[in-house]
Automatic annotation (TrEMBL), chain A:
Coiled-coil ranges from the UniProt annotation: none
Keyword Transcription regulation: no
Annotated keywords: Membrane, Olfaction, Receptor, Sensory transduction, Transducer, Transmembrane, Transmembrane helix
Protein's UniProt name: Odorant receptor 13
Keyword Heme: no
Membrane-topology descriptor: Multi-pass membrane protein
InterPro entries assigned: 7tm6_olfct_rcpt
Residues that span the membrane, as ranges: 56-75, 95-114, 161-185, 323-349
Organism superkingdom: Eukaryota
TrEMBL record, chain B:
Name by which UniProt lists this protein: Odorant receptor
One GO biological process term: signal transduction
A Gene Ontology cellular-component term: plasma membrane
Annotated transmembrane regions: 45-65, 77-97, 136-157, 195-217, 336-357, 377-399, 448-471
Organism: Galleria mellonella (Greater wax moth)
Annotated keywords: Behavior, Cell membrane, Glycoprotein, Membrane, Olfaction, Receptor, Sensory transduction, Transducer, Transmembrane, Transmembrane helix
GO molecular function: odorant binding; olfactory receptor activity
Protein topology in the membrane: Multi-pass membrane protein
Broad class of where this protein is predominantly found: membrane
Family assignment from sequence similarity: Belongs to the insect chemoreceptor superfamily. Heteromeric odorant receptor channel (TC 1.A.69) family. Orco subfamily.
Localization per record: Cell membrane
Length: 451, 474
């Protein structure tokens, strides 16, 4: 390992880049690996060929898990309603605030996983189409920069999100297990359940308590996996669609050759493309490129490929929108409620050295930010395509190609994005809107509390 | 990279600003004529000393704020001052960390393309940009010096006290404090004597330099925007001659000789410098003839030998100039778009921080403004803070707005020239340019907001609303 590291440092830049610039479908499948792990827990079988028998049992498993979550949801809601009825003062209602975030997550989890079952064919189609578009073999320097950066980001986000969610679940549940272990060693501490359920019997009896804790742990892991499956697939699709848009922009920038002169000086990007072309091809080919008819035929064919790919990407974005928009709307509503209540609890109830609500607040903020950031990336990549259509050498081609490019510019200027069921576009500007709304609700709550 | 860079392009235009920034203590080490190791070390030491002094005094002010945080009025006043000068510290740090990005933006316009027919217009608008940039610099320098002078003058009026909350009776008392421009904690006693004079002098220096640091960086940003706007004006101005040129290639127009007047005098030396003379000569004329020959039904034709075939009897060189005008226009426009993108990338985050801090400051100032009860020191200082903060926000909002307006008015300029007389090539050119310029170029604060007068209006509106609500609640 050390030798490989040292050896890599002394390699020249050219060697390193040539080796790394070869891509294959394995890179694509790698990004899907962690998602498949989560889907296995959930019991959904995307892109896997099972026998009918296996399919049947897996769907039974999935519906069993969903039924569990529904049961948890009902029991928690009933307990919350009971508590609210019995709450005499505002302080008692604070237990209500503890439960509201948890209750919010349950229907969200069911919704996200239900979408996967309902739109299964659309998911599989998306994955297969993106897989077929993946570049294989050697790519150019620019493309390599784009692809490697996107892959690195995606890996970090997928892994980080996965482990952070697990850490959150564990931090919720571990205190109860600590109490159980303490009780085994003789200390007699009253048990604390991770989540409050309404049950017709006393949940703190010795054996019953342990069983309920284990069941609740399993439910927590289930809920987390359901939510993970939805979110990770969203990140996966958006990341790959964005990469394809960027690769398309690079292709657009390159496909027309314009010679350098006083109007197109050496340092301009188009002139650099011309220089690279000159370096790679013989002077004979350069003279050939001046034959106007040949040029136009080449340009037409390449432009047709570009237009077809552009249309495919727009269609894939629409598919992503169909699948995810409603669950993202519910997710955003949930997040703003959670931010508001956790903020309130942080400021009013918790001491400055305690971390439970603070971690809840920060995780929700990060999760919403991540979703908005990916939406923004998609918007930006569409805009970059429109910029690169203008910055290609369109003025140096025939009228026919110019008109085609004009229509393409017109379409690419319209935003390609995911919306929350038609209400708002998902971008960083909407993130500030969510924060502002939560902040105003929070100040309202604080004012009511002070009275 | 501290290599010697020949001053050209934007750097030459902004040299006074750069020199002032170097004098104020920014970590700007490029663009010196003398790059020996010794002077470089001296400059680094100079900047570091300034940075240390500024940060240390800022921390003293923050300590003072923490010390007297019991009484609400005192706390609010101190918070406003601390936030006010947070801009300087942040901008100093921002430039130090991001200087590569600034150098890159300054180097974008080192070389630009040219066309024989349009050099005069280019020079004219460049000169206009230069005048405006200088004027802006002098104006902001004047405002900075005036603010420092009025601050120091105001120190000598009114009582020099601070408010303390009496813990037993819960009412506010006053306690004498040193008569200094800024309330700060010093390890020595500054009530009177030589220490007082030393502290006063330090604070005057500190006020001047910290305001200069913040303002000069904003001036550099606005100067970039002025430059980009004047380039867009140049492009709009040459749209009309470009259309006439293009029309002259196909239809008979009188006085075509005048269009080429600039070229006829400089024809000998201003011939477009070809990369590869033979190939280029054949390439452009063949292709260009192929595209726009009328009567061919749009089909392409190549000629064995270039034949001048236009009704105005233009020579071949003049034809080439006419056709390359479009290439010049489009490439120059793309260059401006790259410049604006680079400006946005460089300065966007600084704008985001500025707006965040200004929002909080203005909220607190609105609260302070409700307590004004007469024409006294308190009123003047609150109004002073208010106007200065709003002025800073207005400063970059107005130039950001001008950029948006200029870039979207290119479409109007394209429409208002005589495009209907132009060739098919020119019409497609106008079509694509209009389509592209519909979406205005703007600077965004790290994608969260767009810098325009709308932003300023919303900030002002929020402050006024908050102020009105607080007045009602009293």
């Amino acid at each position: 390992f050390i030798r490989k590291y040292i050896f890599r440092k002394t390699k020249t830049v050219a060697d390193e880049s040539t080796e790394d610039r070869i891509y294959s479908l394995d890179d694509f499948d790698d990004t899907l690996a962690i998602i498949k792990k989560v889907l296995w827990i959930v019991g959904l079988r995307l892109t896997l060929k099972d026998s009918d028998n296996a399919r049947f049992w897996f769907s039974v498993f999935y519906w069993f898990e969903t039924a569990n979550i529904l049961m948890a949801f009902t029991l928690q809601t009933m307990e919350t309603i009971e508590d609210t009825k019995g709450a005499s003062s505002f302080e008692d209602a604070t237990t209500l605030f503890r439960m509201i975030p948890c209750i919010g997550f349950l229907p969200l989890a069911i919704l996200k996983s239900y979408k996967i079952t309902y739109y299964e064919s659309m998911y599989e189609n998306l994955i297969n189409e993106l897989r077929s578009m993946w570049p294989q073999g050697k790519v150019t320097e620019e493309e390599h920069t784009v692809i490697s950066k996107a892959l690195k980001q995606l890996r970090i986000v997928l892994k980080g999100y996965y482990w952070c969610n697990y850490a959150l679940v564990i931090s919720c549940v571990v205190p109860c297990y600590i109490i159980i272990i303490k009780n085994i060693f003789g200390k007699n501490e009253p048990g604390v359940l991770p989540f409050l359920w309404w049950v017709p019997f006393d949940p703190l009896q010795p054996i019953v308590f342990e069983i309920i804790v284990v069941i609740q742990t399993w439910h927590a892991i289930l809920v987390m996996s359901f939510i993970l499956s939805g979110d990770l697939l969203y990140f996966f699709f958006i990341s790959h669609i964005t990469t394809q848009f960027d690769l398309l922009s690079i292709k657009v920038n390159r496909f027309i050759l314009v010679p350098t002169d006083q109007q197109l000086i050496d340092i301009y990007p188009l002139a650099i493309h011309y220089k690279n072309f000159k370096n790679k091809h013989s002077p004979l080919e350069l003279v050939e490129m001046q034959n106007k008819k040949l040029c136009e035929a080449i340009h037409e064919k390449e432009l047709l490929d570009i237009i077809v790919r552009h249309r495919t990407l727009i269609r894939l974005c629409k598919d992503v929108e169909t699948i995810f928009s409603f669950s993202l709307l519910v997710s955003f509503l949930n997040s703003s409620v959670i931010i508001c209540f956790s903020n309130f609890c942080c400021v009013v109830i918790e001491k400055w050295y305690e971390f439970m609500y603070k971690s809840f607040l920060s995780t929700t903020l990060c999760q919403t930010w991540l979703i908005c950031w990916y939406g923004q990336k998609l918007l930006d990549s569409g805009e970059r395509l429109s910029q690169s259509l203008y910055s290609c050498g369109w003025y140096w081609t025939s009228q026919k190609i110019k008109k085609n490019i004009h229509i393409m510019i017109h379409r690419s200027q319209r935003d390609v994005c995911v919306t929350t069921y038609g209400f708002t576009k998902i971008c960083l500007a909407s993130y500030t809107a969510i924060i502002k709304t939560s902040w105003s609700y929070f100040t309202l709550l604080v004012q009511t509390y002070k009275q | 990279m501290m290599t010697k860079v020949k001053a050209q392009g934007l750097v030459t235009d902004l040299m006074p600003n750069i020199k002032l920034m170097q004098a104020a203590g920014h970590f700007l080490f490029n663009y010196h004529s003398d790059n020996s190791g010794m002077s470089m070390l001296l400059r680094k030491v100079y900047s570091s000393v300034h940075a240390v002094l500024i940060v240390v005094n800022y921390v003293c002010m923050a300590i003072n704020m923490a010390q007297y945080s019991d009484e609400v009025n005192e706390l609010t006043a101190n918070t406003i001052t601390v936030l006010f000068f947070a801009h300087s510290v942040i901008k100093l740090l921002f430039f130090a960390l991001n200087s590569k990005s600034f150098y890159r933006t300054l180097a974008i316009w080192n070389q630009s393309n040219s066309h024989p027919l349009f050099t005069e217009s280019d020079a004219r608008y460049h000169q206009l940009a230069l005048t405006k940039m200088r004027r802006l610099l002098y104006c902001i320098c004047g405002v900075t010096v005036l603010s420092v002078a009025s601050w120091v003058t105001l120190t000598f009026f009114g009582e020099s006290v601070r408010f303390i909350a009496n813990k037993e009776t819960n009412e506010t008392m006053t306690e004498p404090a040193p008569r200094l421009p800024l309330k700060a904690w010093y390890p020595f006693n500054t009530m009177s004597g030589t220490m007082y004079i030393a502290a006063f002098a330090l604070q005057i220096y500190w006020l001047l330099f910290s305001m200069a640091i913040a303002n000069l960086l904003d001036v550099m940003f606005c100067s970039w925007l002025i430059f980009a706007c004047e380039q867009l004006q140049h492009l709009k101005a040459i749209m009309k001659p470009l259309m006439e040129l293009s029309a002259s290639l196909d239809t008979y127009r009188p006085n075509t000789a005048e269009l080429f007047r600039a070229s006829s005098t400089e024809k000998s030396e201003k011939v477009p410098d070809p990369v590869d003379l033979d190939i280029r000569g054949i390439y452009s004329t063949q292709q260009d003839f192929g595209i726009t020959l009328r009567g061919a039904g749009g089909k392409l034709q190549t000629f064995g030998q270039p034949t001048p075939n236009n009704p105005n009897g233009l020579t071949q060189k003049q034809e080439m100039l006419a056709r390359s005008a479009i290439k010049y226009w489009v490439e120059r426009h793309k260059h401006v778009v790259r410049l604006v993108a680079s400006i946005g990338d460089t300065y966007g985050t600084a704008l985001l921080f500025h707006m965040l801090i200004s929002t909080i400051t203005l909220t607190l100032l609105a609260y302070q403004a409700t307590k004004i009860d007469g024409v006294n020191v308190y009123a003047f200082s609150t109004l002073g803070y208010l106007t200065y903060t709003l002025g800073q926000v207005f400063h970059f909002c107005i130039f950001g707005n001008r950029l948006i307006e200029e870039s979207s008015s290119v479409m109007e300029a394209a429409y208002s020239c005589q495009w209907y007389d132009g060739s098919e090539e020119a019409k497609t050119f106008v079509q694509i340019v209009c389509q592209q310029c519909q979406k205005a170029m703007s600077i965004s604060g790290a994608k969260f907001f767009t810098v325009s007068l709308d932003l300023f209006a919303s900030v002002l509106g929020a402050v006024v609303t908050y102020f009105m609500v607080l007045i009602q609640l009293k």
